[in-house]
Amino acid sequence: MQEQHNQAWAWASGRLSPSRLAHTRGVVKAAQDLARRFGADEEKAGLAAILHDGAKNLGGPRLLSLARQEGIIVDIVQQQAPDLLHGPVAAALARREVNVQDEAVLHAVAIHTTGAPDMSTLDKVIYLADYVEQGRNFPGVEALRQAADRDLDRAVLQAMDGTLRYVIDRGWLIHPLTVEARNWLLGRLGADGKGGPD
Ligand SMILES: [Fe+2]
Ligand SMILES: [Fe+2]
After folding, report:
1. Residues 6+ apart with CB under 8 A from 31
2. Which ligand number lies closest to the CA of residue 90?
3. For residue 53, how far is its CA from the centre of ligand 2 (angstroms)?
4. Can you give the residue ranges of every domain in the chain?
5. Exposed end of the chain (fewer CB within 10 Å): N or C?
6. What is this structure's pTM?
7. 151-190 pLDDT, tens per residue?
8. CATH superfamily, region 2-138
């Protein structure tokens, strides 16, 4: 696993800007901490974190062409907001270029932007680590870090709600997977439509 981590770092370092590499370092640390706290595999969390933004600096047209090349089915929302593809494309490239075969790791990378229904603990850890890593600074980040100390599902829901508000305020498209993920989480929390963060 250590060798794969090293290969993944070499791959990510070659693809990312210095600021995004610093973010990635923060996500690795946060993901390992969350994995320890909530019982996910720390090694897998570290590897997924290293890989997660590996396609982030590519730009829309390149993401769209790579997605087609890698056999990723591009939906209508991704067509219009191609940055949403940076997770799925990173997973496909990691499989081919870093030889990562672990489906759990690749899935966590693929869905780190949108979330998805039936998220595994590892999926949630990566999704949340992306928000709470030490370099992040947005309104509500401290409350989210506190939530992340206590309850993984509620913290993921809180991060999703914040993202949805942000996206709605800007008039951007919402990916249906985020809606499905949120509904699934509310169901898990035994919610009846009032199960948002307290
Ligand atoms: Fe990302
Ligand atoms: Fe990220």
Report:
1. 45, 46, 48, 49, 125, 126, 129
2. 1
3. 5
4. 2-138
5. C
6. 0.94
7. 999 999 999 999 999 999 999 999 999 999 999 999 999 9
8. Hypothetical protein af1432 (1.10.3210.10)
